Amino acid sequence: MSIGEGAFHILAGLLKSRSGVVLGRDKAHFLESRLLPVAARAKLPDIDALAAALLRPGSEGLAVETVEATLNNETYFYRDAAPFELLRNSVLPALRRERRAARHLRIWCAAASTGQEPYSIAMMLADDADAWAGWNVEIVATDLSRRALDRAEAGVYSQFEVQRGLPIQALLRHFDKEGGHWRLSRDIRRRVRFRQANLAQSFAHLGAFDVVLCRNVLMYFDAAAKADILARMRQMMPTDGCLLLGAAETVLGLGVDFRPDWDNRGLYRAGAADLPAVASA
Fold first, then answer.
1. Does the predicted model carry a pTM greater than 0.85?
2. In what order do the strands lie in the sheet with 181-184?
3. What is the DSSP secondary structure assignment for residue 207, as one 8-state letter?
């Protein structure tokens, strides 16, 4: 089965307008695999019929379900390891020194999906409780998917999910076994505040942040949208703020007010880009 050109145009347009995500025609198979179950639940025979239904009045609920189905909610605890080591050993200690008078820090995990990333940070802070005694550290986690956020707020994960990246010591210290699943402790869950937000739209209402993690999501946007999102993030950060992107993502070439930390891949600091010198021949 293949998606007709007109249907693909409708679906790709819906996804871009609702989430900012850009899909090329080579993603037709991806759309088909994600949306066939949506069509089946709506009692529609195929993806083309789903696209046609989305144009009819009263289709808002179907549109929300369609966008939800196409979002990539891939995540796991301490994903990629290196960014969390960087936070633990460099970024957070430096900010702790700079903020020692106010003892207040705000961290934003954008595109947090089902919550493993912000909860990993919360566990990391809890495990270093003495260093953060007396501090008010706010962790705000956002995602476009309401379904993913509901799962994140519940803090319940399958055996498979807790085996992906989570050290056994952290599992035993911060989780309780519930049948075939594991529930995060109330102490860790209360450290994270989940809110629905769309990166393609305004997120200024979230306030200012010292650290922003926006990992493995900008790759789904075109260059103009990336530049717009990063520029708006920069407006929410102080001059010593830190941005963490995925290993395959960069701010270079986008004309935004961040400079790479050349010693730490994926880390960007607020301020104009400072390009490394080119060695002479």
1. yes
2. 156-158, 181-184, 175-178
3. -
